Amino acid sequence: MISAKRDLLNAILLLAFSGLAYIGSTQIPIQGFGKTEANFFPNIIIAVLVFLSVCLLTQSIYRFTKDSKSEKVSIRSAIRSNKKVIITFGLFAAYVFILPYAGYFIASILFLIGLYTVLAPNKNKIVLVILFMIGLVFILYVVFQQVLSVFLPPGILF
């Protein structure tokens, strides 16, 4: 029952976040340089997030109605059980905030390192993981900047 309530709350929060993200993606200026506009990829990610959130919402409603026992859940225990989710949202907010200042390359690497430290169960081979993150960010940079002609915020390195 507690997990059904937690999933219901998370699904509602993700849907609200998706709505705000979509509103934010409409504010991206249209450059008209390439084959796709700058809001193309964020809108795809938002659509996938909405689909998965609706799936989670329907699943949690089904489990919520199926379970008959009700338990009281305090706010502290809900926050404690959702600590990783809250920290992940905070990391997303920090990423969006520092992206215009630090640029895509540095902000993305810092964001991925932060996510890794929060979500990874064991932190073995961290040097190898950081090298993989740098390679992934660089490949995504080349694909978006050169192939798709999508503007990415410049920073100190790129």
Automatic annotation (TrEMBL):
Keywords: Membrane, Transmembrane, Transmembrane helix. Pfam families: TctB. It comes from Oceanobacillus iheyensis (strain DSM 14371 / CIP 107618 / JCM 11309 / KCTC 3954 / HTE831). InterPro entries: DUF1468. The chain crosses the membrane at residues 7-24, 44-64, 85-114, 126-144. The keyword Transmembrane applies. This is DUF1468 domain-containing protein. Residues 10-153 form the DUF1468 domain.
